[in-house]
Each structure stands twice: as structure tokens, then as C-alpha cells.
Amino acid sequence: MDGRNDTAVTYFILLGLSEYPRAQAIFFCLLLVSYLTTVLGNSLILFLIHYDSRLHTPMYFFLSNLSFLDICYTSSSLPQVLVNCLVRIPAISLGQCLAQMCAGLYLGVVECLLLAVMAYDRCVAIGDPLRYPVRMSAQLCAQLAVASWVSAFLLTVIPTLTTPLEFCGHHIINHFSCELLAVLKLACNDLRLNELFMMASSSLTLLAPFAFILASYGRILRAVLKMRSAEGRKKAFSTCSSHLTVVILSYGTAISMYMMPQDKASRDRDKIISILYGVLPPMLNPLIYSLRNKDVKGALKKLMGKKDVS
């Protein structure tokens, strides 16, 4: 196709795995199971936190935000990907594509900021347990949560809307959804401003929160090593291990996708990493937090009518 084609683009074709029908059928089944697991698992976490008064603490308040976020994040793209697996020509309009791109970018940044806030919560809980209820008041928790959602909007949606993209001719996206990097490759206007914004945004939304999380866990480790009780150290590690696992899953895939050099050979890698980033953390979060957490398991037993012996 001639790169100088100035025909205005009104829709895109999402290539996905359309060239491999058998693989696409298997992919559809796996993705459907993952999506249902994500929605049901995170909905259960939300319900348990609302249902059991023992979970009305800062830690579970932020976890409820994370569970709600995971439902929204997966629902912003996976239903479209599932539908595309069933149609011969997986097309999406320009407006829907840009909306999907903005939603995915926004919700991904919210998750990065929320994980940083959750690290601060654990740092205060372990480093200053006596003043923890005062320092992490309900008002402060609400302010931190709102700040995460609003800051992400200002860092992603507003700059994206003020630097519009132009598309002319090329309309095939080599991806499963309208992911930012895949869409930018089709833009025909000067992308220097967009690339500058992406570098600055990645530093603010990936590197800075990740550095803050590392610093928080450094303080947590020092506090844990000062504990005289082996049981206290075990409990502290237990409450942090779930969050740390989620951080590694989320930040590891996000940094691999947005901070590594981009070239033609990275397209298929980006597709795989994008699916891992969009499916694995939201699906595994409920399992990570429930299987490794006595409070959540106790709330689930209470809901099922079983006596909680803990």
C-alpha cells in the first residue's frame, strides 16, 4: 500500500490471529474463561469487602478499588477481542478504537498509581503500627484513591485529547485491540510530540511509582528485620507478599511493553505482552489475595455459612 495515500480512515481492521483460524478458536476459549474468571473473581472480592465489616480497613479499601479497576480494565477491550474472534473481518470504527485506546491507557495508569498507594499503606502499617489508624484515616484513604483516579485522567486522557492523531490510508492494526503503540504506528502526522509525551508519561506513571514502591519496601524490610518476634515477621511478610506479587506481574509486563525499544521485530512480542498485561494480573489478583489472606478466606467462609475458627 502506498504510504502517501491520503484517504481518510473511518475504521480499522484488527488483525489479531485471524490468519490462524485454529489458533484463534483456542485463543477464544482461553480468553473467555479468563474474562469470566476475572469478572467473577473480582466481583466476589468486592462483595466480600462490602459484606464483612472486618474487611472495612484501609488495606481492603484499596483492594476494592483495585478489583473494580480490574473489572473495568478487562471489560474495556476483552469483549471486543472475543467478538472479533467470531467474525470474518474484525473491524472497529475510528471513534471506538480511540475510545478503547484512551480507556486502556487511563485504567492502566490508575492501576500503577493504586499499587503505589497500596505500598505506602503497607509501609505505614508495618513501620508505624501504633499510629496506623490515625495516619491512614478514612478521609486520607478516600483522598489517595481519588487522587489516583484523577491524576491518571490528567496524565493520559487530557494529553491524548489535546494531541489528536491523523490517519490516512493504512487501517490494519497488527494487534488484538486498539493498544496505544499499535495505533501510533498507523498515524500519518508528526509523532514527535506524542513520543515526547509518551516518554514523559511513562516516567511519571511507571518509573516514578515503581521507584516509590521499591523505596517503601526498603523501609518495610528494615522494619521487619527489627522485629524480635518470628511470628510478627511472618505476618508482615504474609501481608506484603500478595501485593508484591501483583506489583511484579503488573509492572513487569508494563515496563517490558512501554519502556523497551520498539522495532519491527517487536510487534508480535508486543501482542503477547499486551495480552499478558491485560489478562493475567486482573485474573490472578483475586486468587493471589484470597489464597494468601486469612481475612478474605474467613469472610468467604462466613458468607458460605461455615464457622470461622480463626
From TrEMBL:
Identify the CDD domains for this entry.
Answer: 7tmA_OR13H-like (cd15431)
Entries under Gene3D superfamilies matching the protein: Rhodopsin 7-helix transmembrane proteins
**Location of this chain's protein in the cell:** Cell membrane
Q: Which UniProt keywords apply?
A: Cell membrane, G-protein coupled receptor, Membrane, Olfaction, Receptor, Sensory transduction, Transducer, Transmembrane, Transmembrane helix
Any GO BP annotation: detection of chemical stimulus involved in sensory perception of smell
TM ranges are: 25-48, 60-78, 98-120, 140-161, 196-215, 236-260, 272-291
Where does the record place the G-protein coupled receptors family 1 profile domain?
Answer: 41-289
Name of this chain's protein: Olfactory receptor
Write down the species.
Monodelphis domestica
- Lineage, broadest ranks: Eukaryota, Metazoa, Chordata, Craniata, Vertebrata
